[in-house]
Amino acid sequence: xxxxxxxxxxxxxxxxxxxxxxxxxxxxxxxxxxxxxxxxxxxxxxxxxxxxxxxxxxxxxxxxxxxxxxxxxxxxxxxxxxxxxxxxxxxxxxxxxxxxxxxxxxxxxxxxxxxxxxxxxxxxxxxxxxxxxxxxxxxxxxxxxxxxxxxxxxxxxxxxxxxxxxxxxxxxxxxxxxxxxxxxxxxxxxxxxxxxxxxxxxxxxxxxxxxxxxxxxxxxxxxxxxxxxxxxxxxxxxxxxxxxxxxxxxxxxxxxxxxxxxxxxxxxxxxxxxxxxxxxxxxxxxxxxxxxxxxxxxxxxxxxxxxxxxxxxxxxxxxxxxxxxxxxxxxxxxxxxxxxxxxxxxxxxxxxxxxxxxxxxxxxxxxxxxxxxxxxxxxxxxxxxxxxxxxxxx
Length: 394
Fold this sequence. Notes:
Helices cover about 20% and strands about 30% of the residues. By secondary structure, the chain is an alpha/beta fold. The chain has 3 domains: about 5-70, CATH 2.40.50.140; about 140-210, no CATH class; about 225-394, Vaccinia Virus protein VP39 (Rossmann fold, 3-Layer(aba) Sandwich). The strands form 3 sheets. Strands 7-18-19-17-16-13-14-15 form an 8-stranded mixed β-sheet, sandwiched between helices. Strands 1-5-6-4-3-2 form a 6-stranded mixed β-sheet, with no helix packed on it. A hairpin with a 3-residue loop joins strand 5 and strand 6 (about 60-70).
């Protein structure tokens, strides 16, 4: 047994490890000779690997995979030619080497752990639904690529090194068919360049070169799972439908979650810095977009004398980092508008869980009860997870 196997690993030292577990951040977890956890990306539970320590902390270390000495029986063959460890590999996916059922189990357990960390007791006993992806491949309806003399590609993990691609296994086939043409355009432009390409609901593709983020408009990348999310929300809000109340959609973008619900409410307010109707869309008169910062809009409404219609609902779908300082003012506004149901959506389980706990423990959150939760996999082959909760006013 080499000396490194029973000593505490230090930076640049080579170790041989057996990967024992899988972290929700994507890395496999082994232990060095001192018992300290070592996180290694692109590994699977049961792998015996040779790694190089890249970073060390008191309680854990990070390492890069050098060689799989003995492959775990859990491993599967990645579909993508540029997936894997080391230089020249794409950083978009983390888990193509793992079976999808293990990916999904790890995501759900990670979200439950996030709830328990912030203070929820026995979160696994909460009423919940799980929506794994029916098709974990070919689901992305939009991607952002970097262009240059190489054609087009994605960044490598943790760097701005561009990895050229000929196809993307998690993208819709319409996008893959367009990649060759995009590569030719990229080689004709000054480098570096950037292109966003999406597939419209009708099945055609659109592109935007060297434009701002989401230049084609924000849209959830997985249409099938987005439909499942909207269906879950509609079912959860059933007591508020057709009651003549207010629907407040905060961080609502182009109304992805609220437009379909508009016929069931007397008034709909959709607020976001980038709020605006989709191209060619006819809006009902009672549906209003407000292209405003959510926190500032909420403060303005708190100071106004207007009251809600009663029996209404709130949808809160903030950015990845969560609601932040706006959370408690939102709760105050929900009380002022006499809202009865609250849908809390989050694309980062830690931020989502923290917001839920902060709300329920605050004076502004008194009277709200967590009724049910759901987890929806919008991003197979990656560590990302969409979480949603229903709260009701007691």
